[in-house]
Amino acid sequence: MSALLSGNAWLNPFLGALQAAQVELGSVAHALGIAGDSHGQPAWPWPKRLAVEVLLIDAGVARQLALALAATGGALLLAVAGLVWRGRRIALFAAAALAAWFAPWPDTSLWLTDAVPTSFQTTPFSVETIALGAAHYARECAACHGDTGRGDGPRAGTLVHWPPTVVGPLLGHRLDGELFWRVLHGMHARDGAQTMPGFEGRLSDAQTWAILDYLKVLAAGGGAQDGEGWPVPVALPALDVRCGDAPAVPLASWRAGQRVRAVAVDGRAPPLEDPRWQTLLLFRDGALPAPSEAARWAANGDASCVAVSPGAWTAFAGIAGVNAQAFAGSQLIADRDGWLRAEAKPGDPAWANAALLCTAADAGGERGGRGGRVSRGRSDPLTSLLLRIDAEPVRYVKGGYVH
Ligand code: HEC
């Protein structure tokens, strides 16, 4: 058994299964009426949850937990066999008792952690919420956390605790639903003293979720500016897209498994459409092409799908870590699972010097996110970039999925 569990290839599927089982348990509890609602979504009814984000880092504990689960499962099977097979009942029961007794459960403090009712809640990340979150962040949070989220706001120096930077691994180590809870209820030091005020009553649930979406943009943009890559994986934000003169539809309705290339259109001429991806054209607010113009592009074989949600340009510029004024000509690629992965700067239409901003970690689940120049192989740079992105999918983000 332990030979099977050496190496880390098993870790991601194991943690994925644990996480899925935990979320499933939550929905069963809700369906049975054991758990009520909290902030408009099903509540997690227990004070503890599996610390999947810790297990991800400590493979030793994860391995021990897997063995303990296997031994306990084996004990249950032996006990059931004992019930069925009368002749061998005593031997089977004894074996079951032994297996249960020797199940090597690690100390619970190593694999359980405090939960809150909103632990497993999330909301969709969208262009609209990013814009809303930016406005509320500026008003409520920037004084302490700083305009760029690095914890250097004007009030930071006056606080007992320095606010942490979000431009780093922090958000990747936390469940969204727990950040939500902390923002609403505040944070406290061990001695009970408040370190961060709570915003319940001041911010609505929707506003709080929106600010958390904006924090992801600050994290991504800051990491890109530092040349470190995105410290957390960033999904393609939800938005409405209009292709040619067809009615606008949600981006999510595009065939799943499709790569998306977002292009901040410089001037009026869109690039050619390319079968390797679906192109999403970004225009500044107020500068959207008329549907008839986009229909002409489509007829020429040019890209003709335009992001029509207000704020799309600003949201993508923020994620790329580029000033919105200087964003024209930039491109971003999202992989087949909808994670944004790479960026090409203006003046690099062929992706010759593109940066992979979200790199996958090895199966051990170490946090990736270091930016990397894409090596120039024999094939063209864009093809090697796409191959690398496909070969290294984003896995496991915060007890949901970390890359
Ligand atoms: C009065 C200053 C202040 C304001 C205003 C403030 N924070 Fe904080 N924030 C802090 C401090 C200090 C900490 C660190 C607290 C600690 O570790 O105990 C913190 C921690 C955090 C964390 C990290 C939580 C974690 O799990 O480690 C997040 C996220 C956060 N704040 C978000 C926000 C958001 C969003 C707002 C605005 C709605 C906000 N903060 C407003 C001071 C502030």
UniProtKB/TrEMBL annotation:
<keyword id="KW-0408">Iron</keyword>
<dbReference type="InterPro" id="IPR009056">
    <property type="entry name" value="Cyt_c-like_dom"/>
</dbReference>
<dbReference type="InterPro" id="IPR051459">
    <property type="entry name" value="Cytochrome_c-type_DH"/>
</dbReference>
<keyword id="KW-0472">Membrane</keyword>
<feature type="domain" description="Cytochrome c">
    <location>
        <begin position="128"/>
        <end position="219"/>
    </location>
</feature>
<dbReference type="InterPro" id="IPR036909">
    <property type="entry name" value="Cyt_c-like_dom_sf"/>
</dbReference>
<protein>
    <submittedName>
        <fullName>Cytochrome c</fullName>
    </submittedName>
</protein>
<keyword id="KW-0812">Transmembrane</keyword>
<keyword id="KW-1133">Transmembrane helix</keyword>
<dbReference type="Pfam" id="PF13442">
    <property type="entry name" value="Cytochrome_CBB3"/>
</dbReference>
<keyword id="KW-0349">Heme</keyword>
<feature type="transmembrane region" description="Helical">
    <location>
        <begin position="65"/>
        <end position="85"/>
    </location>
</feature>
<keyword id="KW-0479">Metal-binding</keyword>
